[in-house]
Each structure stands twice: as structure tokens, then as C-alpha cells.
Amino acid sequence: MSEASIESDKEVGVALAFGAIAVVGAVVMFGHPSQLGKAWGFGAAFLFALCSVVAVQIFD
């Protein structure tokens, strides 16, 4: 048996989790009736999409 390190797919799971939250933020952005709610939805979508990309880079 070879002694190789076990690689983890943690970055994929974290990226998918942040991506799912980003999708929820995008739905809020399009579905909220007020302008302030749309702004919060955009902010959440942008922030969690950014965190999704950063998670892949950090855990790589």
C-alpha cells in the first residue's frame, strides 16, 4: 500500500454552501418589493458569491 495523503473536498462543500446562500440573496434581490430589500439581497448575493470563490482558493 502506498502512503499518500488523503485529499479533502472541503472546498467544494463550503463553496456550494456559500453558493446556495448567494442564490437565496439573488432571489431576495429580485423578489423584494422595496428598494432597500433589493439592496440587501444584492449585498448578500455579492458577499456570499465572493466567499464561495475565496473558500475554493483558501482550501486548495
UniProtKB/TrEMBL annotation:
InterPro entries (alphabetical): DUF7525
Key words of the record: Membrane, Transmembrane, Transmembrane helix
Any Pfam family matching the protein: DUF7525
Record field: transmembrane: 12-33, 39-59
Keyword Transmembrane annotated: yes
Official protein name in the record: Uncharacterized protein
Gene source species: Halorubrum salipaludis
